[in-house]
Amino acid sequence: MKMIEAITEQLPAWRERVNRLRTQFGSLKVCDVTVEQIYGGIRGVQIQVSDISYVDPYEGIRLRGYTIPEVLEYLPKKPGSDFPLVGGLYYLLMTDRLPNEAEADEVEQEWASRSQIPEHVYQVIRQFPRDTHPMTLFSVAIMALQPSSQFASKYAEQMFTSEGLPKGDYWKYYLEDSMNLIAKLPGIASFIYNYKYRNEEIVSYSPELDWSANFARMIGKAEDLRYQDLCRLFFVIHSDHEGGNVSAHTSYLVSSALSDVYLSCAAGMNGLAGPLHGLANQECIRWVLQVREAFGGHVPGKEELTDHLRRQLQAGKLIPGYGHAVLRVTDPRFTVQYEFAKKYISNDPNIELIGRVFEVLPPILAENGKVKNPYPNVDAINGALQYHYGVKEFDFYTVLFGMSRILGLTAHIVWGRILGKPIERPKSLTTAMLEQLAEKS
Ligand code: FAM
């Protein structure tokens, strides 16, 4: 694979950079930690390195240095589509280089050739009651693939042979496992969708189509080219958001114990399934529909909407899709999806309402200075777009997020092995120790 060559070429320089920092500047202090940060979710404590992506509070995410609009513009596209091939995005995340068409296509072809899902994975899913949350099914399906981990079997094998497995080569097996897992995600996610909401159909992967279009086709949208484009857009922009969010940090931590890609990604997906993380995206469309319902199905005018929003806030309610722990501007991932919506489905009442909320809510949220970011985040529009194209099962939306996020998680994990990151082990203190420190201060 070209991807392996591109990584191999860069290896010595990357390892040298990290080695230099560790040996020459190992004792350099990066930041202080306060008691509030220890009790407050380690917010803002700079304890990680993420070269895959970086979230700038005023600019939003950059994937390998490129902003969201740049990523959408520069990555190769399939003829007839304005939206990138996910294979190209993966090449960028993994290699730190923009791919040409052939390189993006090679990743797509690799996925097609690795897409066959073992029968027992379907059986595992079918064992669960149909009302099981799709994220639970997604996580167990990933775990069901774990016995095929090449890293796990190679690692176990070398324990008993003289040949050994050099530490510097671990990443190659992690990359193999990542490619094998990602190749199967459209099949797994679509089967969960079909099992829960459609006809229990298992649809095989079409090598003629890219990864995103395969997923769309597998849930019955073979003819809907616009939905296929939405999938490309969605899967690209949700792929990574630095290393500190719950799913990225969890999977990275688990992989630091040399747990393989399947174990690590399933752990990350269990974090993504939490209501304060990935599950938030199912709440936003529910809220949009509730607002319309409160106005008899109509989209309220600006004044009516302002009154309604004020009443909700006065009643202590959160407005889903607004605010962010890091961002201090409108999330560019909201912006590009809103542009898609305005271009293709501007007559959709949910999109109209989302546009009106975007006009009136930020100044209201900003009024008392409490909300640090009064602007929309990516979740403010995700669900409405899926809903428009007929994917109306809200609890499935986090699986779409998970499919995309595994692209980023695996890039972090593979690079952790490339750079030889050791097992993570932060130190704990007791409350009494902090109290003693406080008294001495
Ligand atoms: N509506 C009403 N109040 C809000 C608000 C919103 N959308 N966002 C923040 N606030 C309040 C917040 O509850 C807090 O009030 P208290 O001090 O009384 O607890 C205050 O403003 C300060 O919060 P913050 O510092 O601005 O935000 P946080 O960093 O604590 O939290 C969010 C960030 C995203 C969890 C928060 O803004 C929120 O709950 N938003 C709505 C839910 C949502 O959209 N979640 C999706 C997040 C998405 F980016 C993701 O991770 N998938």
From TrEMBL:
<dbReference type="Pfam" id="PF00285">
    <property type="entry name" value="Citrate_synt"/>
</dbReference>
<dbReference type="InterPro" id="IPR016142">
    <property type="entry name" value="Citrate_synth-like_lrg_a-sub"/>
</dbReference>
<dbReference type="InterPro" id="IPR016143">
    <property type="entry name" value="Citrate_synth-like_sm_a-sub"/>
</dbReference>
<keyword id="KW-0012">Acyltransferase</keyword>
<dbReference type="GO" id="GO:0005975">
    <property type="term" value="P:carbohydrate metabolic process"/>
</dbReference>
<dbReference type="InterPro" id="IPR036969">
    <property type="entry name" value="Citrate_synthase_sf"/>
</dbReference>
<comment type="similarity">
    <text>Belongs to the citrate synthase family.</text>
</comment>
<dbReference type="GO" id="GO:0006099">
    <property type="term" value="P:tricarboxylic acid cycle"/>
</dbReference>
<dbReference type="GO" id="GO:0036440">
    <property type="term" value="F:citrate synthase activity"/>
</dbReference>
<comment type="pathway">
    <text>Carbohydrate metabolism; tricarboxylic acid cycle.</text>
</comment>
<dbReference type="InterPro" id="IPR019810">
    <property type="entry name" value="Citrate_synthase_AS"/>
</dbReference>
<dbReference type="InterPro" id="IPR002020">
    <property type="entry name" value="Citrate_synthase"/>
</dbReference>
<protein>
    <recommendedName>
        <fullName>citrate synthase (unknown stereospecificity)</fullName>
        <ecNumber>2.3.3.16</ecNumber>
    </recommendedName>
</protein>
<keyword id="KW-0808">Transferase</keyword>
